[in-house]
Amino acid sequence: MTSRLDQPRDVRRTVLPRPHYDPESFGRLSERIARFMGTARFLVYMTIAIVAWMLWNILAPGFLRFDSYPFIFLTLMLSLQASYAAPLILLAQNRQDDRDRVQYEQDRSRNERNIADTEYLTREIAGLRMAISEVATRDFLRSELERMLKELDTRDGQKDPA
């Protein structure tokens, strides 16, 4: 039986219950951790911890040392830290990509609206210019009235030879 993409999946029953968590709060936490791991403060703290670890295991009395010279346990702890850091960083990057995608879509939509508004206003201005060119201006009316007065004066002058 093939599953259809337009219908929700059937609930799968598992032997062990799945842990329930809020993906949004987990995502925010992973972003905070990833941001902290990308700071100079984190590097300083890690350096201090590693140097303290090494100095303790070199200078402490033999019965207090817990990780002798090749520092196998330190290597294990750093590997464990890296194995958790990488997925947290990737999760934070994926969330940032999602936010960037939403922002891009909003910007594109806003730009399309601005272009449409600009085209509309351009058409309106062109229409107004065409309408204004057909409207008689004050200077045009004044010159026409002056021409008509001169024409009337010349007619009156020709009729009355007094």
Per-chain topology:
Blueprint: H1 23-37, H2 40-59, H3 72-134, H4 138-159
Which descriptors would you attach to this protein?
elongated; mainly alpha; single chain; about 160 residues
Provide structural commentary.
The protein is an all-alpha fold. It is 74% helix and 0% strand. It has helices spanning 23-37, 40-59, 72-134, 138-159. The longest helix has 63 residues, at 72-134. The radius of gyration is 41 Å and the shape is elongated. The mean pLDDT is 88.
Order of helices and strands: HHHH
Poorly predicted runs: none
Distance between the termini: 116 Å
Percent helix, as a range, is over 70%
Compose a concise summary of this entry.
This protein is mainly α and 162 residues long.
